[in-house]
Amino acid sequence: MKEIKEEDLNIISGGNLSVSGPVINAVVNVIKVLKDAGYQLGSGIRRISENNLCPLD
User: Fold this and answer.
1) What is the rounded distance in angstroms from the CA atom of residue 38 to the CA atom of residue 46?
2) Rounded to 5 degrees, what angle do the CA atoms 38, 57, 50 make?
3) pLDDT in tens, 8-56
4) What b/e sequence results for 26-50 when a residue is b if at least 16 CB atoms lie within 10 Å of its CB, and e otherwise?
């Protein structure tokens, strides 16, 4: 293995991706909203196909 000099250690940088907590939280919330919308849409389709709708009277 190649030995690295002390002055070379100062210029090493890792990763360029920085994702903060609020960004992750926003993405998770969007996924939750899409998931809930999918459940509602699926439930509506199922109820229409089974003719199990609430009366509007």
Assistant:
1) 12
2) 40
3) 888 877 767 777 889 899 999 999 999 999 999 999 999 999 988 888 7
4) eeeeeeeeeeeeeeeeeeeeeeeee
2: tokens are 């190649």
Residues shown for the chain: 57
Retrieve residue 9's tokens. 């250690």
Which amino acid does the sequence have at 33? V
Assign residue 17 a region: left if phi > 0, alpha if psi is -120 to 50, beta otherwise?
beta
The per-residue pLDDT for 42 is 95
